[in-house]
Amino acid sequence: MSILEYNGAAILAMTGKNCVGICSDSRLGNQAQTVATDFEKIFKMGDKLMVGLPGLATDVITMKELLTFRLNLYRLREEREIKPETFSALMSHILYQKRFGPYFVEPIVAGLKEDNTPFISAFDLIGAPVVTDDFVVGGTCTNNLYGMCESFYRPDMDKDELFETMAQCLLTSVDRDALSGWGGVVHIITPEGIMSKTLKGRQD
């Protein structure tokens, strides 16, 4: 088993029309044993920016604290909020810095640019980025998520369609993965703010 699969995770980001969504499951596991069912894996980094951190739970917490520290420094120096593209570059830099003893996380960034067009990107554990305009997935059930997203994704969905699509993709995918599940949470980022909803899933 890969160390990235030790705690289990399923994270998905998807674009819509002037909105972007990111969702994750709620399970924290010790391999096949469930430890908690309310583990947070998605963190708010700005008014229109969130990051999902699938991977080893201890490194998820460490990376969240490090990103908060670096963002506070950025706000002090620049006196403005960070753009998603800039945050993506910062994430890549932080991960590559530790390439010889990496953080065991594969982050997913989702946000809205200044013109409210969606931005999503994903990274491997040494910071190699991929930027796309439809969807990115991460965690232990990426194969299932890819299949569901390729079936359900449509361009230019509004925020309600985007929520429904992401919820169905996540819940269906984690049903076939023993290391993730126990419900989830979906965040939809719009120009007006972030809408968050929790999902109830199979409890087994």
UniProtKB/TrEMBL annotation:
Annotated keywords: Cytoplasm, Nucleus, Proteasome
Name the UniProt record assigns to this protein: Proteasome subunit beta
Cellular-component GO terms for this entry: cytoplasm; nucleus; proteasome core complex, beta-subunit complex
Protein's cellular compartments: Nucleus
Gene3D superfamilies associated with the record: Glutamine Phosphoribosylpyrophosphate, subunit 1, domain 1
PROSITE patterns assigned to the protein according to its UniProt record, in alphabetical order: PROTEASOME_BETA_2
One annotated GO biological process: proteasome-mediated ubiquitin-dependent protein catabolic process
Superkingdom of the organism of origin: Eukaryota
